[in-house]
Automatic annotation (TrEMBL):
Protein name: Uncharacterized protein
Gene3D superfamilies in UniProt: 1.20.1280.50
Length: 158
């Protein structure tokens, strides 16, 4: 760790390895200060339960406005660490499963994050179903006690 005395010593400060370390330390301090500042904003004073209710409403509005982009709402998980953790740990946000529409990794994540929550599964079966999508769909359908909605189609609805 570089001390303030080291930073004033010309022999130390101009060595690249010390400069890199000093930059890293300062950036870490800036991040800590930014986190403290963010923690003081009004939205971050809300309990996680209230925040998650807002996220559920937001997800519903995105699904209504942009049905062709059902995963667009997940961008809120990139806003900050607190929002990410709140979203990931709120199973109802992950209960809509669409193995043929969502990327494979997202479908797996949804099944894991939904925990014991009731599931809604909608799948448009393409002419050729990938093996991975088929396995995920089979796994999801095996969760029959959790199903609240199941829709399997072989062609798009118009």
């Amino acid at each position: 760790m570089i001390s303030n005395a080291d930073l004033r010593n010309d022999e130390v400060i101009f060595k690249p390895e010390y400069l890199s370390e000093a930059i890293a330390q300062l950036l870490a301090e800036i991040m800590d200060i930014q986190t403290m500042k963010n923690d003081m904003t009004a939205i971050n004073q809300l309990p996680n339960e209230v925040l998650c209710n807002i996220f559920v409403e937001y997800k519903g509005s995105i699904l209504a406005d942009q049905p062709q982009h059902p995963s667009a709402w997940t961008l809120i998980t990139s806003v900050c660490l607190r929002w990410r953790n709140a979203c990931i740990n709120h199973p109802p946000l992950w209960s809509d499963i669409a193995p043929c529409r969502d990327p494979l990794a997202l479908t797996r994540a949804k099944l894991k994050r939904s925990k014991g929550t009731l599931l809604s599964i909608e799948s448009l079966q393409p002419k050729i179903l990938t093996r991975a999508a088929e396995q995920l769909l089979a796994f999801a359908v095996c969760q029959a006690e959790r199903l609240v909605f199941l829709k399997l189609r072989n062609r798009p609805e118009y």
